């Protein structure tokens, strides 16, 4: 352990800055070449496909389209080859015999490309894909940290992601277990031109008898790395808070911070994924060098030290290209932060009024969903809209119900279209929620109209279950009968139903519900607003929709942090299970008395990445 620490400190002192800049160079190359390729490829495939947008309605069709499959496979191959070239280059650099000398940057890249391509064409076609596993292995501590702190939104707006977090963490640990015994395989392939299968066997043999020591070493350094990650992250939060507090309008500093927050998360993650990658490549190289020297001395004690690779064209001068890249990346990051804060200060000042609050399934936070008590509590909470789901019974009566099957809310394991309204009327849709709601019936849409008339607007979602009959005609007739054209909007995942409603009555506002978004969907006819899962909403999405004359409704937004984010993006409506919390956040004054109060608020709202399922 002492020997490893000494060697590794030498590596860290003389190499990590160059390695960091080298890795950053590959990331820049990735952004310059691969991202445009992805964009061009997607546009070309969508042109062949014949549509300009991707939503949950056509997503399966797009991803099973043969050119799409070809594009995905091509990108996987290109990215894996680039990653293997990067790992090869960095491994070769770490293995320089004279550690005080630094290889010429251009020669290093050329030599890395030559050696890695030689490995691949020597029938080691699986090596690039193995390098992906090795890369994940090197950044596992950061991925686990993100998974622990992430808020996972499940379908239906629920935020209980503990089980999925556990699966993600267990999956990462299992991957580490698999890769651990073969982590030296890539060195045998690069140094000794071994096949991958043979190299994996040799890696296992090299680790044999050294497993505990290796695990202890990896855990020790990665715990230090993880600790540094969190210290750095909160330091960045503090400095960002200070910057915003000093240079922004005090009335909207919380909202400005939350508009900057995703970028802080993204850049911090990228920075530490790079740092974790180079640190662990350095560490694994140190372990491999030590173990091979020990093995070499055991087998050939008279031969001296284990021979290492010496790269050509060494120079004692630090390459100006690397330094220039470092300065460029740092300047670009700081400029981006400054422009974001400055632009958002002007943008948000104009945009923070007029956000509507829609109670999801009535006020399902305090009453059973899609019932009269839920609608009553939505009114009490001063919601602008109550969102309700409608489906048809066997005799085509529209009733308020989210699931097609009645089991979850009534205990009857039957589908709504198999029962008449008379049978449905006798079911208890409230006792599952609480004793005070025992014998609460499933209401009809007509009853909802009668109760809500003049009290609250309705967002009527038509559940496209494949069993609705003449629903557009029935709904439009009912809206016209109750004079509800300007007191409701109609939404659905079925675009054809919305077209039919618009054709029957152009005054009724229609909204297309989207789980995922990509492409130019903003100019769809017969649509007045897009109801989008909040995780897919960005400033660009809102801006483009508004430019096309459409509104953006965000669903289902329950956490304070996500409500704040939707507020900062100036969506037109927030659909939430907790309208009281949404109203408090949207209409409060964000002016803070002190920097300490701002920091406390920020720490209260902390979260890393939002994972959408």
Relative helix content: 55-70%
What's the count of strands? 15
Q: Please give the oligomerization state of what you see.
A: single chain
| Structure annotation, total helices | 22
Low-confidence stretches: 10-14, 154-160, 313-318, 342-353, 604-613
Indicate the proportion of strand residues.
5-15%
Can you tell me the number of structural domains? 2
Molecular structure report:
The protein has 613 residues and is of the alpha/beta class. It has 2 domains: 2-319, no CATH class; 356-587, Phosphatidylinositol (PI) phosphodiesterase (TIM Barrel), CATH 3.20.20. The chain contains 22 helices and 15 strands. It has helices spanning 2-49, 59-63, 66-94, 105-121, 127-138, 140-149, 162-180, 185-192, 196-207, 211-247, 253-299, 320-351, 372-380, 407-410, 421-425, 445-452, 471-481, 495-504, 539-547, 560-569, 579-587, 595-604, and strands at 53-54, 102-103, 151-153, 314-315, 356-359, 385-392, 398-400, 457-462, 488-492, 509-514, 518-519, 529-533, 551-555, 573-576, 610-612. The strands form 4 sheets. It has an 8-stranded parallel beta barrel, surrounded by 4 helices. It has a two-stranded antiparallel ribbon with strand order 1-11. A two-stranded antiparallel sheet has the order 2-4.
């Amino acid at each position: 352990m002492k020997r490893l620490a000494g060697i590794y400190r030498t590596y860290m002192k003389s190499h990590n800055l160059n390695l960091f800049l080298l890795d950053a160079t590959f990331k820049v190359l990735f952004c310059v070449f691969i991202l445009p390729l992805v964009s061009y490829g997607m546009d070309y495939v969508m042109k062949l496909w014949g549509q300009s947008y991707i939503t949950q309605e056509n997503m399966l069709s797009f991803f099973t389209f043969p050119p799409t499959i070809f594009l995905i496979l091509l990108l996987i191959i290109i990215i894996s080859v680039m990653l293997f070239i990067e790992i090869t280059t960095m491994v070769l650099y770490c293995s320089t015999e004279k550690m005080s000398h630094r290889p010429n940057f251009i020669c290093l890249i050329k030599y890395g490309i030559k050696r890695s391509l030689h490995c691949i064409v020597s029938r080691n076609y699986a090596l690039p894909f193995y390098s992906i596993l090795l890369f994940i292995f090197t950044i596992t501590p950061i991925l686990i940290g993100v998974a622990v702190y992430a808020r996972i939104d499940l379908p239906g707006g629920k935020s209980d992601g503990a089980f999925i977090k556990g699966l993600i963490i267990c999956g990462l640990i299992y991957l580490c277990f698999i890769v651990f015994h073969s982590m030296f395989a890539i060195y045998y392939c690069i140094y000794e031109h071994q096949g991958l299968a043979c190299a994996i066997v040799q890696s296992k043999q090299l680790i044999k008898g050294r497993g505990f020591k290796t695990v202890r070493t990896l855990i020790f350094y990665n715990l230090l790395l993880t600790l540094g990650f969190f210290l750095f992250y909160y330091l960045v939060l503090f400095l960002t808070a200070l910057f915003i507090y000093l240079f922004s309008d005090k009335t909207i500093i919380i909202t400005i911070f939350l508009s900057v927050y995703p970028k802080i998360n993204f850049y911090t993650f990228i920075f530490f994924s790079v740092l974790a990658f180079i640190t662990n490549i350095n560490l694994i190289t140190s372990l491999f060098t030590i173990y091979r020297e020990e093995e070499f001395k055991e087998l050939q004690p008279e031969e001296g030290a284990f021979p290492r690779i010496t790269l050509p064209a060494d120079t004692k001068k630090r390459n100006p290209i690397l330094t220039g890249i470092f300065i460029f990346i740092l300047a670009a990051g700081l400029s981006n932060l400054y422009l974001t804060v400055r632009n958002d200060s002007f943008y948000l000042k104009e945009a923070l009024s007029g956000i509507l609050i829609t109670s999801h399934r009535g006020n399902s936070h305090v009453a059973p969903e899609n019932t009269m008590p839920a609608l009553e509590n939505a009114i009490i909470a001063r919601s602008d809209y109550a969102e309700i789901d409608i489906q048809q019974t066997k005799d085509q009566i529209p009733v308020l119900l989210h699931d097609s099957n009645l089991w979850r809310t009534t205990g009857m394991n039957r589908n709504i279209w198999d029962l008449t309204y008379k049978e449905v009327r006798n079911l208890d849709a409230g006792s599952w929620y609480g004793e005070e709601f025992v014998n609460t019936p499933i209401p009809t849409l007509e009853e909802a109209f009668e109760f809500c008339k003049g009290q609250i607007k309705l967002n009527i979602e038509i559940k496209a279950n494949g069993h609705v009959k003449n629903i557009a005609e029935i709904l439009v007739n009912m809206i016209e009968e109750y004079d509800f054209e300007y007191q409701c909007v109609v939404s659905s995942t079925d675009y054809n139903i919305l077209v039919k409603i618009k054709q029957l009555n152009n005054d009724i506002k229609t909204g297309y519900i989207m789980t995922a978004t990509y492409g130019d969907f903003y100019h769809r006819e017969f649509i007045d607003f897009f109801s989008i899962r909040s995780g897919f909403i960005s400033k660009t999405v809102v801006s483009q929709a508004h430019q096309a004359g459409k509104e953006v409704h965000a669903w289902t937004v329950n956490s304070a942090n996500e409500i704040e984010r939707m507020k900062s993006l100036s969506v037109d409506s927030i659909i939430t299970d907790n309208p009281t919390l949404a109203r408090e956040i949207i209409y409060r004054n964000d002016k803070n008395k002190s920097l300490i109060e701002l920091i406390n608020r920020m720490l209260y709202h902390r979260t890393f990445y939002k994972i959408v399922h």
